[in-house]
Fold this sequence. Notes:
The complex is a heterodimer of chains A (436) and B (1097). Chain A has 436 residues and is an alpha/beta fold. Helix content of chain A is 30%, strand content 17%. Chain A contains 13 helices and 15 strands. In chain A, helix 5 packs parallel to helix 6 (157-169). Chain A is globular, with a radius of gyration of 22 Å. Mean pLDDT of chain A is 88; it is low at 1-42. Chain B has a nine-stranded mixed β-sheet with strand order 2-1-3-4-11-10-9-6-7. In chain B, strands 12, 13, 16, 18, 19, 21 and 23 form a seven-stranded antiparallel β-sheet that branches. A five-stranded antiparallel β-sheet of chain B has the order 14-15-22-17-20, with no helix packed on it.
Amino acid sequence: MSGRRRLTRRTxxxxxxxxxxxxPQIIPSLALGAAGMYRPAPSNRITMGLIGCGGMGQGNLRxxxxxxxxxxxxxxxxxxxxxxSAKRAVDEYYxxxxxxxxxxxxxxYNDFRDLLARDDIDTIIQATPDHWHxxxxxxxxxxxxxxxxxxxxxxxxxxxxxxxDAVARYGRVFQTGSQQRSDSRFRFACELVRNGRIGTVxxxxxxxxxxxxxxxxxxxxxxxxFDYDLWLGPAPWAPFNEYRTxxxxxxxxxxxxxxxxxxxxxxxxIAHWGLGLTDTGPVHVEGVGEFPxxxxxxxxxxxxxxxxxxxxxxxxxxxDFENGVKxxxxxxxxxxxxxxxxxxxxxxxxxxxxxxxxxxxxxxGHHRDFLECVRSRRxxxxxxxxxxxxxxxxxxxxxxxxxxxxxRWNPQTEMFVDDPQAERMADRAMREPWRL
Amino acid sequence: xxKTKLRRRTLTATSLTACLLLMAPGADAADIPDDAINRIExxxxxxxxxxxxxxxxxxxxxxxxxxxHGSIPYGVHAFTRLGxxxxxxxxxxxxxxxxxxxxNLARFDAIIFNNSTGALFTDPQLKQNLIDFxxxxxxxxxxxxxxxxxxxxxxxxxxxxxxxxxxxxxxxxTLKLDDADxxxxxxxxxxxxxxxxxxxxxKEPYSRDRLHVxxxxxxxxTDMEKDGIHRADGDFAVSWVxxxxxxxxxxxxLGHRNEIFWNPTVLQHYLDGIQFAIGDxxxxxxxxxxxxxxxxxxxxxxxxxxxxxxxxxxPEREREIEGRLIGLLSSDEATIACKMFACxxxxxxGGDASVPVLADLLDDPQLAHMARYALERIPGKAVDTVxxxxxxxxxxxxxxxxxxxIGERGNRRAAKTLFKAAxxxxxxTRLAVVEAMGKLGGSQAVSxxxxxxxxxxxxxxxxxxxxxxDGLLRCAEIMVDEGETDRAAAxxxxxxxxxxxxxxxxxxxxxxxxxxPLPVIDVVIGLLEDEDPAWRGTxxxxxxxxxxxxxxxxxxxxxxxxxxxxxxxxxxxxxDRGDRAAGPMVAALIDSADLAVTQAAxxxxxxxxxxxxxxxxxxxxxxxxxQARMSLDxxxxxxxxxxxxxxxxxxxxxVRREAARSLGSRAAVGQVxxxxxxxxxxxxELARIAALRSLGLLAGQDALRDLVHLLLRADNPHLxxxxxxxxxAVCTRxxxxxxxxxxxxxxxxxxxxxxxxxxxxxxGHVGGPVALDVVxxxxxEPALADAALDALTNWSDVGAAxxxxxxxxxxxxxxxxxxxxIGYIRVINLPSARDPVETVNMYRRAAxxxxxxxxxxxxxxxxxxxxxxxxxRLIEGYLSHESVSRDAASALLAxxxxxxxxxxxxTQPAIDNILRLFPDDAExxxxxxxxxxDIERNEGFITTWRFxxxxxxxxxxxxxxxxxxxxxxxxxxxxxxxxxxxxxSEPGIYNLNEVxxxxxxxxxxxAIIVSDREQQARLEVGxxxxxxxxxxxxxxxxxxxxxGLSVGQDVFTVTLAPGRNVLLLKITQGGGGWQACCRxxxxxxxxxxxxxxxxxx
Lengths: 436, 1097
């Protein structure tokens, strides 16, 4: 028996066995709401809880508060300061409702399980550090909640698979926080590529930032009001130092995967979207990365790895390239990032995608899209399976670079091919009492 | 590469005095004969093994309270010269115990106990100082009698490694290498070493578990019958190393005989040991790692991780390094942090050999997790066995950890044991067992979980019940994987039928649908009509997800029997599902009496319709159904274009029109021929026009002749216009002008007048010399003159310019004149690769024949788009024409904007001139201001800075450091450097990352602004991350923020003093990008007068 429990895919979204059409084409008006079947009454608000009150958590909180058909009932964080800050934000926002007597204050929890135990909460925002993502998402699905979950989806390949399976098992709605999918510039770029405007795509490059480094930092006393043991959760124990937590966890492999996952989650997702390879993965991954040999941060600083897919197309992920995604095909190229889009030939930029061409889903806004899917039970624009496949590429890259050689991957079985060493890196034992 | 240069440390006066004062008698080189001095000199290595990164100082301490060895002065001299000759260190020689005060010890990188003996000092403070010195990173070297010291001070023995216990041998012996690969053994080159000296025996605390022994007596080659041998194990070590706290210890028992100190091999061995103790020569990371604590340097850990990585794939090397890692776990000395690290590596490299030692750690609260971290990854039954055993022996959280790992391993044989373990335990343990069983699957797990789910009360033990239900769902999934579909379906059915929470029933239903969809069709369809919108949505989603093509048909056939609202939901779901098998059933619903159903069916057909549905959709579209039209256009199916093309022969004209229109919308480039036929022959004019429109979108060069002929045959103005438009659209897509013009030219003579006029229009759009010839001829024909002139006027390239000019110059008819004039201006304006000077000349010609203001204005408007100084000069000439001077001014400003920064010398005076001529014209002034602003957009950036940094403070992050004042703010001395010329990107954005390295720190930029008067200035600052601005020592702006840079993020006004003004920017850095830019302007936003930026000295 191998060291990793084999998890097989539990979803059949692309229904194997049914005659496949050339490509999917979503017609927006098929939402159940549009058929007039049910339009939620004004009092029928979606209730929500926030788990993880850091920068991303509070940002998402504000976006949802503004939506009008959401009622935030609770926040949760093991850091008292952040928890209280989030609670204050919610209470202030609902101040007039409180005076009117229709809102009774935002609850504040230290332990996410207490929040999930509440029957009156329909949905959660999951904005914890990466090493917590799997536990929160799976517990939330098991508790019947719909989830707006921050990226990167997972800490390991196995965790991502388990998360997607749990969401599918319970028929929950999950929106990944990859908001580039709701950005028309990115969508247009992907539609140009999907509709063959640059011919057969040969190579895609995802440019991501460089991961920072730092020195060695001594243990510090845990600040008052911070439940550090809970913050660590399933991760291996290490003494507290402020450089571990609250933003900088991103650069520490016990908690995250460096820029390869932090920004990889965004751009690899777009690369897949443009290629139409959102539900699969590469067959070969090879690359070089510099991992700091000293200092607290150990994620790859400079890196370049290339993934080859069964179709022959290659995706290269590196920090030695402008931030963004560039597809290169036989007939030209398209480049897109958060600030601009460019193409060769330039005329592509003013092209119109015809009604009978592949049209990617349009979003009314990443948070809005989530809420509408909560009501209609349809798949949102950034579904969890795509997020899992995306971040698997990041994990494969990190593994290939750490192991120092090429690895072969089977995207159907989601296992390495003849590679017990790489298999060992696909998962990690959780600290008691936590488990997947 | 080892360098041979000598490094002589420059002794300061104080230290030199100290040396002289502290050199004790007996340490003088004069105490050893010249012959010895020479031999030592010849035996010394020339170069250090490792070039030290900084100067090193060591203490040679030879105080004796007991026996004093005659070799001591030889050792003193040899060690001193060793450092001087190689540059590895400078030696201070002393026998004064005052060397062991904290201040004095701080001067040294290492201490050599050179044959010292006895209780060297008794002061407990001095003893503590020595221990602290080593533990905090200092080095200790013990030579020979150094183990004959401090018997009453056990910590010394522990640190040095052992105590002397007699010397049974003083003869030639063979020493064997215990670790041939260790850097300190390099000189021996893997071979045993023969030497004559007094060989020591050691007693407690000597142990190979604690010491890394390098060299020892080859007992097999030695006389073991000597008196005084106390050890029975034949272990007589000679050299060893060890880590002690953060420091390093090297001991060598050679050094009794004088000639040892001129033995080159021994001297090299001593040098390596000394450099190792100092820390310049890396030792075995497995030694250093034993004392690792969190927060210390990770270098030894990284080295070991590298060795592990390199060993993977080579079974022999894997076993070897696994052994060493196991050694770390078994060691009493190794720290917890070290052992945790060893476990991490065993997760990668561990095999069966690691299992027992890892199993032993399962009851250690500090190491149990990391033991499982390794165990979970190791394949094989041994792990499963120890986990089950531990299950029985542990309790509490440690037990839960083991239960979790059993679940992860998927060892189904453990199910029974697990279930027993769930009896009579607290809730957390029970919960763990339940969840583990869900991962194992199998009939035992299922029956156990069923029992638990049944007996757990949702109120008393909600978590256990929820976990049990989840476990059952997982077990069902495992059943499906293993081919036991029937049992899975039965389990799902039970879970669905029971009054479980909705999401559990949703999961159960989903499982049923995926495992065996056909029997539950009724259930799912029934749910489409459920009161609860969540069930309706779930049902729709399941219809999309269900496997097997058969299911599509079965669901679809249910359509007819449902209520309209349900029909709509089902159709939408079938459309999302995308299986065309549902097409016919959906199409049938188009006949529904319910309009909403019809619409939904029509909509769905866009996704799942096929070619056979095009006729129906076209009919509906023809009747005005917008949805049908959309679906007709979007239908992607094989043969759809052809099917629609066949509708071009439909009986009903409106259907034919629809078909013609749709083919264009669908970009059906393969249907050009049928469309031409329709355009040509269809009795219905609107159908012909629709076909022509589509042909305009689709047709290519080969259709041209046919289209031209159509134009010739067009017998009414509508058709003529439509055909003409079509031709124009097609020609616009064809690059080859002549290829377009030729069919038209060929057909021209046979055309009647109306057709000729239309053809001329087309020729105008085609352009090129072939077309021009035709038009020139037509100009001479009175009936065609107007049309020909129109064509020239609208010519698509500049080829018509001369013709138009000639007409404008010579025409007597004023209408013709102005038309030609306008046309001339127009073609000059067409995009071309022409030299702008030539363009200006063409305008000059136009100006020359312009006869009225309107025409002059046309010239000016055209000139305004030419980015060349010649155009500017030509326009300037117009400024004196009063009636058009204002237009000229406006045009001039437009050119100034186009010319940008490059031609300031010309544009600036021109703009000033305008402002002088039109002082009261608010609009022009405003326009001028904008142009100036635009031109000067990249002006005013400060590009001469000097910088200092990075400045950081312990435990202060990128935001907090904003408020910490460093030298540039406090007035302390600062090491300023000039900012390199190329460390910025346009227009004046400095990338601090290129000159300063750091995160969670800050840097400063300083510039000197020299102003000739007191005046206000506007500063526009951009920064990544935060910025604090000080002018002449006062804070004028502060923005503590984490952001990316954009130009002009923060804008504020300051007052410049006359003379030199010191501008200081403090830029904080959290991580990632680190940039700054600063632009200085007048308060009005225009250029600031009277300032220069001083160049940094």
